[in-house]
Amino acid sequence: MKSELLKTALFGAGALGLVTAAAWIEPDAYKAEIFSDTGQAFFPNFRDANAVKAIEVVDYDEAEAAARPLKVELKKNRWLLTSHNEYPAETRDRLAKTAAALLDLKKDQAVSDRPEDQAGFAVIDPLDARNASLTGRGKRVTLRDAQGATLAEAILGRAPKEKAGYRYIRLPGQKRTYLVKTEADPSARFEDWVEADLLKISYNDIARMTLNSYQIDEASGRLANLRRLTMVKDKENWDAQAKSIAYAVGSLKVAGARPKPPVLAGQLRTGDLALTLDMVMSLRQKGFFITPFGQLLANEGELTVETVSGLSCTLRFGEVLQEGMSSKGKESRYVFVTASAKAPESEARAKAMQSKFADWYYVISGTDFARLHPQAAAAKGQPPAPPPGLPPGFPPGMMRRMPPEEGAPPPVPPAK
Predict the structure, then answer these.
(1) What's the pLDDT at 224?
(2) How far is CA 54 from the centre of its chain?
């Protein structure tokens, strides 16, 4: 009897030992599983960076709780931002760097298989509408070939401060998150894919600036609060305010662009406008007006910048951009940009700039608008008579229109 009891006790002890061992062994089995693909390629079929003909980047705006997509494609041998009205992608090296960074990317270290950990690594898919989280979303980047087939696709998360050169990454539709060594840093910001320096005029280039400040009373067809301020470097009115405006010109960045009607763009290149209803409506919607005697006006005035080499550029400030506005009150604004030459050495540059500017209504930030068109500077200006013809910076001979009767204010088409 004692022998049987002893055997039972031994079996019980053995069973307990097995249970304990299983408890210890299971985490090891889990660890073995999570590290099972260490060192493998993320995209084994992606072999040639030159095969990439399109890149899609989707970022997430936490403040707006919205995904922000950007797509660059090769179309007719030109790289274009097809998500942004086919504006030319002028900094294509960003695409090449992203493609090279994802090529042969290895699964260096798996860190979690738990979906609840994804927010901490910032690898939640920005396109995942089922996930209610407003934070912890990463950038989804997709590389495609000429046929539209996916070469590589991943969600890039945050870069840990304690490990430089690394960032978290997850494949869409999979739970596992990895920590990998990569330089991939794609952007979904328009300004990161284009030549953001709109005018390429530095502070030292500027010789003279003229700020024409006015508002258009669309109901009466008159100009209101008309002021003109002339600032000549190191001479007339070149005070702290003028220097601030000049520095703002030198650092002006384009934040977006909208296409002009093709007919308007073509006529701006030739310098001979014949207005159509579509052109008038397009201009008016953006805050720009052309008077019957050929003067281009903007509902928030204009700034003309003249350089020491004889280049003249005019920024006309139009309406606030309505779509895509942030709840933070960042009032991006349309600008109508023109260029002309006042000296032979600037003719080629002015022609190239005017050809580029002809296609687009540009968008600048509300911050830049405030720096370029400060109320204090406008208030110091003297009230001039409305200038005849086209204002400085607009190519002469552009409009063939009869002037209004002498003494009549320049009429503005009233908005419907």
Answers:
(1) 76
(2) 18
